[in-house]
Amino acid sequence: MKILVINAGSSSLKYQLIDMETEAVLAKGLCERIGIDGHLKHTPLVEGKEVFNEDVAMPTHSEAIAAVIDKLTSPQYGVVNSMKEIDAVGHRVVHGGEKFASSVLITDDVMKAIEECIPFAPLHNPANITGIKACQAVMGKVPMVAVFDTAFHQTMPGKAYMYALPYQYYLSNGVRRYGFHGTSHRYVSSRCAELMGKPIEELKIVSCHMGNGSSLAAIDGGKCVDTSMGFTPLVGLPMGTRCGDLDAGVIQYLMNKYGYSIDEMLNILNKKSGVLGVSGVSSDFRDLDKAAAEGNERAQLALDMFHYWVAKVAGSYVAAMNGVDAIVYTAGVGENSSATRAAISKYFGYLGVKIDEEANKKRGEDIEISTPDSKVKVFVIPTNEELVIARDTRDIIA
Question: Catalytic annotation on 149?
Answer without folding.
Answer: yes
